[in-house]
Specification:
Elements: E1 5-7, H1 12-19, E2 24-28, H2 59-64, H3 66-82, H4 87-96, E3 102-106, H5 112-116, E4 121-123, E5 126-133, E6 139-141, E7 161-165, H6 174-186, E8 189-193, H7 204-211, E9 215-219, E10 232-234, H8 238-249
Parallel strand pairs: 1-10, 2-3, 2-8, 3-4, 8-9, 9-10
Antiparallel strand pairs: 5-6, 5-7
Helix pairs in contact: 1-8, 4-8, 6-7
The chain binds ligand BJW and zinc ion.
Protein backbone atom coordinates (compact mmCIF):
# COMPACT_ATOMS: atom_id res chain seq x y z
CA UNK A 1 0.00 0.00 0.00
CA UNK A 2 1.68 3.30 -1.04
CA UNK A 3 1.76 5.93 1.72
CA UNK A 4 -0.50 8.91 1.06
CA UNK A 5 0.67 12.41 0.27
CA UNK A 6 0.37 14.37 3.53
CA UNK A 7 0.40 18.06 2.91
CA UNK A 8 -1.31 21.40 3.47
CA UNK A 9 -1.39 21.97 -0.28
CA UNK A 10 -3.89 20.18 -2.53
CA UNK A 11 -2.48 18.21 -5.45
CA UNK A 12 -3.18 19.26 -9.04
CA UNK A 13 -5.08 15.92 -9.41
CA UNK A 14 -7.46 16.95 -6.65
CA UNK A 15 -8.06 20.39 -8.12
CA UNK A 16 -8.74 18.83 -11.54
CA UNK A 17 -11.24 16.38 -9.99
CA UNK A 18 -12.97 19.24 -8.15
CA UNK A 19 -13.32 21.18 -11.41
CA UNK A 20 -14.67 18.12 -13.25
CA UNK A 21 -18.23 16.79 -13.46
CA UNK A 22 -17.74 13.36 -11.83
CA UNK A 23 -19.70 12.09 -8.82
CA UNK A 24 -18.55 13.52 -5.49
CA UNK A 25 -19.20 11.96 -2.09
CA UNK A 26 -18.37 13.89 1.08
CA UNK A 27 -18.18 11.91 4.34
CA UNK A 28 -18.15 13.97 7.52
CA UNK A 29 -17.65 13.38 11.23
CA UNK A 30 -17.54 15.43 14.39
CA UNK A 31 -14.35 17.32 13.41
CA UNK A 32 -16.26 19.31 10.78
CA UNK A 33 -18.28 20.97 13.57
CA UNK A 34 -15.28 21.52 15.88
CA UNK A 35 -14.78 25.06 14.58
CA UNK A 36 -18.43 25.78 15.43
CA UNK A 37 -17.53 25.07 19.07
CA UNK A 38 -19.05 21.57 19.17
CA UNK A 39 -16.89 18.96 20.89
CA UNK A 40 -15.78 15.84 19.05
CA UNK A 41 -16.01 12.43 20.73
CA UNK A 42 -12.49 11.07 20.95
CA UNK A 43 -10.19 14.14 20.95
CA UNK A 44 -8.83 15.59 24.22
CA UNK A 45 -11.77 17.31 25.92
CA UNK A 46 -14.18 15.32 23.74
CA UNK A 47 -17.57 13.93 24.74
CA UNK A 48 -16.16 10.51 25.57
CA UNK A 49 -13.30 11.81 27.73
CA UNK A 50 -13.61 10.24 31.16
CA UNK A 51 -16.92 8.66 30.11
CA UNK A 52 -17.73 5.13 29.07
CA UNK A 53 -19.73 5.57 25.83
CA UNK A 54 -21.46 2.27 26.60
CA UNK A 55 -23.01 4.02 29.65
CA UNK A 56 -24.51 6.80 27.48
CA UNK A 57 -24.94 5.70 23.89
CA UNK A 58 -26.45 2.21 23.95
CA UNK A 59 -30.03 0.95 24.23
CA UNK A 60 -29.00 -0.76 27.50
CA UNK A 61 -27.75 2.51 29.00
CA UNK A 62 -31.03 4.19 28.07
CA UNK A 63 -33.10 1.38 29.59
CA UNK A 64 -31.03 1.53 32.81
CA UNK A 65 -31.10 5.31 33.32
CA UNK A 66 -33.15 7.23 30.74
CA UNK A 67 -32.94 10.49 32.68
CA UNK A 68 -29.11 10.43 32.68
CA UNK A 69 -28.98 9.70 28.95
CA UNK A 70 -31.56 12.41 28.27
CA UNK A 71 -29.57 15.00 30.30
CA UNK A 72 -26.57 14.26 28.05
CA UNK A 73 -28.63 14.77 24.87
CA UNK A 74 -30.54 17.77 26.23
CA UNK A 75 -27.24 19.55 26.98
CA UNK A 76 -26.01 18.78 23.46
CA UNK A 77 -29.27 20.04 21.90
CA UNK A 78 -28.98 23.28 23.88
CA UNK A 79 -25.36 23.74 22.79
CA UNK A 80 -26.00 22.86 19.12
CA UNK A 81 -28.97 25.23 18.96
CA UNK A 82 -26.72 28.20 19.72
CA UNK A 83 -23.85 27.04 17.46
CA UNK A 84 -23.48 28.35 13.90
CA UNK A 85 -22.35 26.57 10.72
CA UNK A 86 -18.67 27.30 10.01
CA UNK A 87 -16.73 27.82 6.74
CA UNK A 88 -16.32 24.03 6.34
CA UNK A 89 -20.09 23.42 6.35
CA UNK A 90 -20.53 26.30 3.91
CA UNK A 91 -17.76 25.07 1.56
CA UNK A 92 -19.44 21.63 1.39
CA UNK A 93 -22.77 23.29 0.52
CA UNK A 94 -20.97 25.38 -2.13
CA UNK A 95 -19.48 22.23 -3.68
CA UNK A 96 -22.97 20.73 -3.96
CA UNK A 97 -24.27 23.98 -5.46
CA UNK A 98 -21.94 23.55 -8.47
CA UNK A 99 -24.66 21.19 -9.71
CA UNK A 100 -22.65 18.00 -10.25
CA UNK A 101 -23.75 14.55 -8.96
CA UNK A 102 -23.22 14.91 -5.23
CA UNK A 103 -23.97 13.30 -1.88
CA UNK A 104 -23.04 14.26 1.66
CA UNK A 105 -23.16 11.41 4.18
CA UNK A 106 -22.68 12.69 7.70
CA UNK A 107 -22.25 10.88 11.00
CA UNK A 108 -23.13 14.14 12.75
CA UNK A 109 -26.41 14.70 14.52
CA UNK A 110 -26.11 18.46 15.13
CA UNK A 111 -28.01 19.76 12.06
CA UNK A 112 -25.29 22.25 11.06
CA UNK A 113 -24.92 20.90 7.50
CA UNK A 114 -28.63 21.43 6.89
CA UNK A 115 -28.41 24.95 8.31
CA UNK A 116 -25.45 25.69 5.98
CA UNK A 117 -27.63 24.79 2.97
CA UNK A 118 -26.69 21.17 2.20
CA UNK A 119 -29.61 19.39 0.50
CA UNK A 120 -28.36 16.06 -0.88
CA UNK A 121 -27.58 14.71 2.56
CA UNK A 122 -27.97 11.44 4.44
CA UNK A 123 -27.68 11.23 8.21
CA UNK A 124 -25.99 7.94 9.05
CA UNK A 125 -26.35 8.33 12.85
CA UNK A 126 -29.71 10.14 13.02
CA UNK A 127 -30.45 13.58 14.39
CA UNK A 128 -30.56 15.38 17.74
CA UNK A 129 -33.63 17.16 16.40
CA UNK A 130 -35.82 14.10 15.92
CA UNK A 131 -37.57 12.16 18.70
CA UNK A 132 -38.85 8.60 18.48
CA UNK A 133 -41.42 6.92 20.70
CA UNK A 134 -40.20 3.75 22.41
CA UNK A 135 -43.83 2.54 22.48
CA UNK A 136 -45.66 3.29 19.23
CA UNK A 137 -42.57 4.11 17.14
CA UNK A 138 -43.87 7.54 16.05
CA UNK A 139 -41.00 9.79 14.99
CA UNK A 140 -41.18 13.54 14.70
CA UNK A 141 -39.04 16.67 14.52
CA UNK A 142 -38.62 18.72 17.69
CA UNK A 143 -36.48 21.82 17.39
CA UNK A 144 -36.90 23.23 20.90
CA UNK A 145 -33.61 22.74 22.72
CA UNK A 146 -34.89 22.26 26.28
CA UNK A 147 -37.34 19.43 26.87
CA UNK A 148 -39.04 19.47 30.28
CA UNK A 149 -39.59 17.31 32.20
CA UNK A 150 -37.00 14.67 31.31
CA UNK A 151 -37.49 12.06 30.00
CA UNK A 152 -40.19 13.35 27.63
CA UNK A 153 -43.23 11.18 26.87
CA UNK A 154 -45.32 10.50 23.75
CA UNK A 155 -48.54 12.52 23.40
CA UNK A 156 -50.17 9.63 21.53
CA UNK A 157 -49.38 6.60 23.70
CA UNK A 158 -47.67 7.91 26.84
CA UNK A 159 -44.48 5.84 26.41
CA UNK A 160 -41.02 7.39 26.74
CA UNK A 161 -39.49 9.26 23.82
CA UNK A 162 -35.85 8.80 22.89
CA UNK A 163 -33.51 10.83 20.67
CA UNK A 164 -33.65 9.41 17.12
CA UNK A 165 -29.89 8.88 17.00
CA UNK A 166 -28.04 5.62 16.31
CA UNK A 167 -26.49 4.15 19.42
CA UNK A 168 -23.84 1.43 19.54
CA UNK A 169 -25.24 -2.01 18.70
CA UNK A 170 -28.09 -0.46 16.70
CA UNK A 171 -28.33 -0.77 12.91
CA UNK A 172 -27.84 2.30 10.73
CA UNK A 173 -30.94 3.50 8.84
CA UNK A 174 -31.06 1.13 5.89
CA UNK A 175 -32.12 3.55 3.13
CA UNK A 176 -29.62 6.23 4.16
CA UNK A 177 -26.73 3.78 4.49
CA UNK A 178 -27.69 2.18 1.17
CA UNK A 179 -27.57 5.58 -0.57
CA UNK A 180 -24.13 6.23 0.91
CA UNK A 181 -22.89 2.79 -0.20
CA UNK A 182 -24.14 3.39 -3.76
CA UNK A 183 -22.47 6.80 -3.82
CA UNK A 184 -19.22 5.23 -2.56
CA UNK A 185 -19.32 2.80 -5.49
CA UNK A 186 -20.06 5.54 -8.06
CA UNK A 187 -17.91 8.40 -6.79
CA UNK A 188 -14.89 9.63 -8.67
CA UNK A 189 -13.83 11.83 -5.74
CA UNK A 190 -14.47 11.27 -2.02
CA UNK A 191 -13.64 13.78 0.71
CA UNK A 192 -13.40 12.26 4.21
CA UNK A 193 -13.60 15.16 6.63
CA UNK A 194 -13.18 15.28 10.41
CA UNK A 195 -13.73 11.65 11.34
CA UNK A 196 -11.44 9.28 13.22
CA UNK A 197 -12.75 6.48 10.93
CA UNK A 198 -13.07 4.07 13.85
CA UNK A 199 -16.85 3.62 14.00
CA UNK A 200 -18.32 0.97 11.71
CA UNK A 201 -20.12 0.50 9.44
CA UNK A 202 -19.79 4.24 8.58
CA UNK A 203 -15.99 3.87 8.31
CA UNK A 204 -16.39 1.11 5.72
CA UNK A 205 -17.58 3.69 3.14
CA UNK A 206 -14.15 5.26 2.54
CA UNK A 207 -12.59 1.81 2.06
CA UNK A 208 -15.41 0.76 -0.28
CA UNK A 209 -14.88 3.90 -2.36
CA UNK A 210 -11.13 3.22 -2.62
CA UNK A 211 -11.77 -0.36 -3.68
CA UNK A 212 -14.18 0.89 -6.35
CA UNK A 213 -11.45 3.17 -7.74
CA UNK A 214 -12.28 6.58 -6.27
CA UNK A 215 -9.67 9.19 -5.38
CA UNK A 216 -10.17 9.49 -1.61
CA UNK A 217 -8.90 12.59 0.17
CA UNK A 218 -8.77 12.80 3.96
CA UNK A 219 -9.05 16.25 5.55
CA UNK A 220 -8.05 16.12 9.19
CA UNK A 221 -5.38 17.90 11.27
CA UNK A 222 -4.41 14.50 12.73
CA UNK A 223 -3.54 11.14 11.23
CA UNK A 224 -6.27 8.51 11.62
CA UNK A 225 -6.61 4.79 11.08
CA UNK A 226 -7.60 5.62 7.49
CA UNK A 227 -4.68 7.97 6.69
CA UNK A 228 -2.30 5.34 5.34
CA UNK A 229 -5.01 4.19 2.90
CA UNK A 230 -6.07 7.65 1.67
CA UNK A 231 -5.02 8.78 -1.79
CA UNK A 232 -4.11 12.16 -0.26
CA UNK A 233 -4.20 13.60 3.27
CA UNK A 234 -4.66 17.34 3.77
CA UNK A 235 -3.42 18.04 7.29
CA UNK A 236 -5.38 21.00 8.58
CA UNK A 237 -8.66 22.10 10.09
CA UNK A 238 -11.68 21.58 7.84
CA UNK A 239 -12.72 25.23 8.19
CA UNK A 240 -9.45 26.30 6.57
CA UNK A 241 -8.78 23.46 4.11
CA UNK A 242 -12.26 23.18 2.54
CA UNK A 243 -12.75 26.89 1.71
CA UNK A 244 -9.19 26.90 0.30
CA UNK A 245 -10.08 23.94 -1.95
CA UNK A 246 -13.22 25.67 -3.22
CA UNK A 247 -11.24 28.87 -3.85
CA UNK A 248 -8.49 26.96 -5.68
CA UNK A 249 -10.98 25.14 -7.93
CA UNK A 250 -13.19 28.18 -8.63
CA UNK A 251 -10.98 31.28 -8.25
CA UNK A 252 -12.82 34.59 -8.08
C1 LIG B 1 -10.93 17.77 12.86
C2 LIG B 1 -10.96 19.03 13.40
C3 LIG B 1 -11.09 20.07 12.49
C4 LIG B 1 -10.76 17.72 15.04
N1 LIG B 1 -11.20 19.80 11.19
N2 LIG B 1 -11.03 17.52 11.57
C5 LIG B 1 -16.97 -3.82 12.86
C6 LIG B 1 -17.97 -3.79 11.90
C7 LIG B 1 -19.25 -3.29 12.20
C8 LIG B 1 -19.53 -2.83 13.48
C9 LIG B 1 -18.54 -2.90 14.45
C10 LIG B 1 -17.28 -3.39 14.14
N3 LIG B 1 -16.52 -3.35 15.25
C11 LIG B 1 -17.28 -2.84 16.25
C12 LIG B 1 -18.51 -2.56 15.78
C13 LIG B 1 -19.63 -1.99 16.55
C14 LIG B 1 -19.67 -0.50 16.65
C15 LIG B 1 -18.30 0.15 16.38
O1 LIG B 1 -17.98 0.56 15.31
N4 LIG B 1 -17.50 0.25 17.43
C16 LIG B 1 -16.15 0.83 17.29
C17 LIG B 1 -16.03 2.10 18.18
C18 LIG B 1 -15.16 -0.24 17.65
N5 LIG B 1 -20.66 0.00 15.69
C19 LIG B 1 -21.96 0.01 16.00
O2 LIG B 1 -22.38 -0.43 17.07
C20 LIG B 1 -22.90 0.54 14.94
N6 LIG B 1 -23.96 -0.37 14.71
C21 LIG B 1 -23.75 -1.60 14.27
O3 LIG B 1 -22.65 -2.02 13.96
O4 LIG B 1 -24.90 -2.31 14.16
C22 LIG B 1 -24.82 -3.68 13.76
C23 LIG B 1 -26.25 -4.23 13.81
C24 LIG B 1 -26.79 -4.79 12.67
C25 LIG B 1 -28.10 -5.30 12.71
C26 LIG B 1 -28.84 -5.22 13.89
C27 LIG B 1 -28.31 -4.65 15.03
C28 LIG B 1 -26.99 -4.13 14.99
C29 LIG B 1 -23.55 1.84 15.41
C30 LIG B 1 -22.57 2.94 15.64
C31 LIG B 1 -23.27 4.15 16.23
C32 LIG B 1 -22.30 5.24 16.67
N7 LIG B 1 -22.98 6.19 17.45
C33 LIG B 1 -22.30 7.40 17.87
C34 LIG B 1 -23.26 8.19 18.76
C35 LIG B 1 -24.36 8.83 17.87
C36 LIG B 1 -25.30 9.68 18.65
C37 LIG B 1 -24.59 10.80 19.33
O5 LIG B 1 -24.06 11.72 18.67
O6 LIG B 1 -24.57 10.78 20.57
O7 LIG B 1 -21.92 8.18 16.73
S1 LIG B 1 -20.71 7.09 18.67
C38 LIG B 1 -19.91 8.50 17.99
O8 LIG B 1 -18.83 8.07 17.11
C39 LIG B 1 -20.94 9.19 17.09
C40 LIG B 1 -20.11 9.58 15.90
O9 LIG B 1 -20.95 9.81 14.78
C41 LIG B 1 -19.18 8.40 15.76
C42 LIG B 1 -17.94 8.70 14.95
O10 LIG B 1 -17.15 9.66 15.57
P1 LIG B 1 -16.40 10.75 14.68
O11 LIG B 1 -17.37 11.63 14.04
O12 LIG B 1 -15.41 10.10 13.82
O13 LIG B 1 -15.69 11.63 15.84
P2 LIG B 1 -14.29 11.37 16.59
O14 LIG B 1 -14.32 12.19 17.82
O15 LIG B 1 -13.98 9.95 16.72
O16 LIG B 1 -13.20 11.97 15.57
C43 LIG B 1 -13.15 13.35 15.29
C44 LIG B 1 -12.07 13.57 14.26
O17 LIG B 1 -12.10 14.94 13.89
C45 LIG B 1 -10.65 13.29 14.76
O18 LIG B 1 -9.98 12.47 13.82
C46 LIG B 1 -9.99 14.67 14.83
O19 LIG B 1 -8.60 14.66 14.54
C47 LIG B 1 -10.76 15.41 13.79
N8 LIG B 1 -10.81 16.86 13.96
N9 LIG B 1 -10.87 18.89 14.80
C48 LIG B 1 -11.17 18.46 10.78
N10 LIG B 1 -11.13 21.35 12.93
ZN1 LIG C 1 -45.99 6.67 21.31
Amino acid sequence: MPSPMTSMTPSSRLIALLKGRGHVLVLTGAGVSRESGIATFRDAGGLWEGVDPMQLATPRAFAADPERVWRFYDARRTHAASAQPNPAHRAIAALEATGRPFLLATQNVDGLHERAGSKELVRLHGSLWRLRCTGCGDEHEDLQPKLEPLPPHCDACGAMLRPAVVWFEEPLPMIEFGRAQSAAREAELVLVVGTSSVVYPAASLQMAALEAGAYVVEINPEATSFSTHASEHLAGPAGVVLPALVAAAWPG
